Each structure stands twice: as C-alpha cells, then as structure tokens.
Amino acid sequence: MSDIAIQSEINKLIRESGFQKDQKMLCSITRVFKMRYPSLDNLRVCKLANEILK
Known about the structure:
Elements: H1 3-17, H2 26-36, H3 42-53
C-alpha cells in the first residue's frame, strides 16, 4: 500500500470518528490499521499518522 493511500485512509478514519484531531488518536489509528492490514509495517503507519495529527 502506498503512502498516499495510507494517508487518505487515516484522514478518512479521522473524519468518520467524529472527534477532533488529537495526538492521543495515534495509538487507536495504528491499532485499526494493524487489524485491517496485518501485512503493513506498523512503524510506517505510525509515522504517517503522526505527521497528519500534528
């Protein structure tokens, strides 16, 4: 999965959650990606989510 696809999926999760962007969402987003896409590298997802949440 490309970085752009991961970023768009993260933005979609944030929008659909109903919560405002907050750094505390990082763990939850990473956990959701780990359940949906077990083959993805968690460190890469964490880094991209951290950039979006800042």
